[in-house]
Write a structure and sequence with these properties.
By secondary structure, the chain is α+β, with helices and mostly antiparallel strands. About 30% of the residues lie in helices and about 15% in strands. The protein has one domain.
Amino acid sequence: MVIARDPGQSVDYVLEEDRSLDPKDQTRFKIKFLTNRQRAEIEDNIGKMNKDGSYELRAGSYPMDIVKLGLMGWEGFKNENGEDVPFTKTSGTDKASEKSLDYLRPAWITELANAITEKNTITEDEQKN
């Protein structure tokens, strides 16, 4: 049976590299699933046809756009001094700020983007973590 997901409800996601750690030492990213409209708008912007007939692919921006819309916060994310890294949103929106995204490694952005967009990425066990 298929089960509907509320795109506004966040779930915890633990990066693969943190899953072997004790749960109290894991960083928990609060992610939500995108609405169909949000996903379509992102996909529409993957590439564009230029006036000269060439096609421009924005593959690098695609995961960033997904995470900007789907990342709602984090818990247990520390800097090199062991201090909590603040999560901020773009003023007047529910989008993660560029400053928040700059704290993330490219591989983490890719993994989070996949988790946000792929229904099967988050298992029941991961939700319990």
